[in-house]
Amino acid sequence: MSLHGEYVPSPAQWVRDQVELYESTGGKQGNTLRDSDMPVVIVTTRGNKTGKVRKMALMRVEHDGEYVLVASKGGAPKHPLWYYNLIADPDEVLLQDGPEPFPVRVRELSGDERALWWQRAVAAYPPYAEYQDRTERLIPVLLATRTS
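RESULT FIELD:
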């Protein structure tokens, strides 16, 4: 399964390289964050302004077949651009955790549900807690649920 349209790789070379390696090996390589042992997934979405296909590697935070996507941007003052793509079109998203991507529906979490998934995210990737301390914004937590 894929999103149709022109693919525009990330402006960051390391992201382009990681996505290409992950996809070309069916997730056997490029499946951890840079030189760490922390697993990632590939998320494919459509640009909310350009309509072009975008891909990024995000930390793998999975529980019972659902995934959380944390829009931390390292604790920067603004949300990452991909967050706006997901909010604009939450039903046109693919997630790849292994050999093949699959469709997901994404929704932003709040309240107790956000708190539960935030704990899971920090357990999977402890720097998220530091990122929240660095910024005044509440870091968005989005849940990706398989649709097929």
